[in-house]
Design a protein that fits this description.
Elements lengths: L2 H13 L14 H13 L16 H8 L4 H19 L5 H27 L16 H29 L4 H31 L5 H20 L10 H5 L1 H8 L6 H16 L11 H12 L2
Bound molecules: fe (ii) ion (2 copies).
């Protein structure tokens, strides 16, 4: 196979996947666990960040890319996600789940390498990275990362597509970065199924506690994003955490919020469509977006 054909095959394989076990699958069963773990493991794209060729950008495009206020938070988010996933993985005993989580954490670490290469290639100055803290409650860290990705990826799908359509991101750069965005789609698909599986296999008396924890995570994430926490945070993190919501304004993309939501919804569906239909799709954020869309013209 030529190099181009191998790349195209890996790209197709990361987006399209059917489980080998036939028949109906009960959510929360062992077969369900095998399905979402195998999905993540089998669709891994083995690209190497070190060999990515970063396209030479014209002065305008270069300025647009380097002045985006997202690079610090992007690098730090990947760094924090890596540590949180790795910490949680150490608490898990099931070998297949450990393999899948190790893959997930490894991909987060690879995202950070991709970003650091991009930053280096385009001469973007980064703020020094903070010391990442090992979460005291590994499950809390995993849930925060998982649900954050569900919010951020949903908006990233739409922003990425808008930036592509308007030419804000040059086509070559879109192509280079595309696998990273699809990887986040796989991550939230994996996470949504893990959460449904995990809840169902807990003993009944632990389920309300878990539901409460999930509610606390969502409260934390919404609070963080709406920016009520402003002022509690001294390093400007809140402003950046809001990028998912205000990104299109900051990027100067001339788009109505309603149109952006439509693109997010369409892209979310498109990116999930290639995977086994027996897997659950992340639905909470798309549902909220649909409700919001109803009120936004
Ligand atoms: Fe990531
Ligand atoms: Fe991720």
């Amino acid at each position: 196979m030529s190099n181009d054909a191998a790349i195209a095959a890996a790209d197709y394989a990361m987006r399209n996947w059917l489980g080998a076990e036939p028949g109906k699958i009960k959510i929360g069963s062992d077969a369900h666990k095998r399905l979402f773990c195998r999905m993540l493991l089998d669709t891994h794209n083995p690209y190497k960040p070190a060999v990515i060729v970063w396209p030479t950008l014209g002065a305008d495009a270069l300025h647009r890319i380097t002045s985006l206020p997202i690079w610090d938070i992007a690098v730090q988010t990947e760094g924090r996600a890596t540590l949180r996933v790795e910490t949680f993985t150490k608490t898990v005993k099931d070998p297949l789940l450990v393999d899948a989580l190790t893959m997930d954490g490894g991909e987060e670490a690879r995202h950070k390498v991709v970003l650091s290469k991009l930053v280096e290639a385009y001469g973007i100055a980064l703020a020094p990275e903070p010391e990442y803290e090992v979460p005291k409650d590994p499950e809390w860290g995993w849930l925060v990362t998982g649900y954050s990705e569900c919010i951020d990826s949903f908006f990233a799908f739409g922003l990425f597509e808008s930036a592509k359509r308007t030419g804000y991101f040059p086509a070559e750069l879109v192509e280079t970065f595309e696998p990273v965005i699809q990887e986040e789609a796989r991550h939230i698909l994996f996470f949504a199924n893990w959460a449904a599986w995990y809840r169902r296999q807990l003993p009944w008396w632990r389920r309300p506690l878990f539901a409460l924890k999930v509610l606390r995570v969502w409260t934390f994430l919404i609070w963080e994003r709406i920016g009520i926490a402003k002022g509690l945070d001294t390093n400007g993190e809140m402003q950046d955490a809001n990028f998912a919501m205000t990104g299109h304004e900051q990027m100067g993309i001339d788009l109505k919020v309603g149109e952006l939501i439509d693109i997010c919804l369409a892209e979310d569906k498109r990116r999930m469509d290639g995977y086994d239909s027996r897997l659950l799709r992340p639905t909470f954020v798309p549902r909220l977006a649909r409700i919001a869309r109803f009120f936004i013209r």
